[in-house]
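Chapter review: from sequence to fold.
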Amino acid sequence: MNRAFVPLLVWATLLTVLAAVLWVWSSDHLPPAIFSAAAGVAWLVGLYALLRPGRRLRLRVRPPELDLSFSSVLVALAVAMLVLGALVGEWLILIGAGVLVAGLIGVARELRAERRYR
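The token string follows.
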């Protein structure tokens, strides 16, 4: 039996509890309404996953030429930190600069290793 419905129904239950708490303690009606709508959608999707006829999932295999680089992810996160640091403060700019240096060093090492491989 496919158990894909379990996390969906758990999420729907959590959203329902949060919506109920917000309806009791909040004086504003917008946040509880948003949580109630999200809980309703989660319940619908979870019940659909529970009651739909079982289908076998096909596993997708990653092609061998696809290479994932942790260093390039670090560079992207560092750029986001630098941009966000303009709003948040200097401390995030300094952290982003340090992450950027680490990411660029990693990218340089990967490029050097790729040249040796060829």
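Two observations follow directly from the output. The chain is about 75% helix and 0% strand. Residues 5-51 form one domain.
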